[in-house]
Specification:
It contains 4 helices and no strands. The chain has helices spanning 16-28, 32-51, 61-84, 88-99. The model has no long low-confidence stretch (mean pLDDT 91).
Length: 100
């Protein structure tokens, strides 16, 4: 499983912002069913994590919320990359056409 965009060999020649743009283009190419499946996968992954937040109260909740906010992209980006890989070639072509 790919955890970071830098691990995608097709995007190795691009800088980070361009890699993120290509990923966004690829995600926009997902069909409606794939978008729903992506959202459900994220929800299933994050629900137990955020349900655990219900056990903290008062000021003890602040550090936990900070950790949760930082962990969110670490947990969801690999799933988004896996879904985007299917359309990566088309997204690269569209990105290159947009640059010129």
């Amino acid at each position: 499983m790919i955890f970071r965009l830098s691990q995608v060999s097709k995007l190795s020649q691009l800088n980070l912002r361009d890699k993120q743009k290509v990923k966004a283009i690829a995600l926009s190419m997902l069909s409606a069913n794939e978008k729903v499946l992506l959202a459900v996968c994220k929800l299933l992954l994050l629900t137990p994590f955020f349900m655990a937040l219900a056990y903290f109260e008062g000021f003890y909740l602040l550090p936990v919320l900070l950790i949760a906010g930082l962990a969110y992209p670490l947990l969801t980006v690999p799933i988004e990359i896996q879904f985007a890989l299917k359309y990566l070639d088309k997204a690269l072509v569209e990105f290159e056409q947009g640059k010129s």
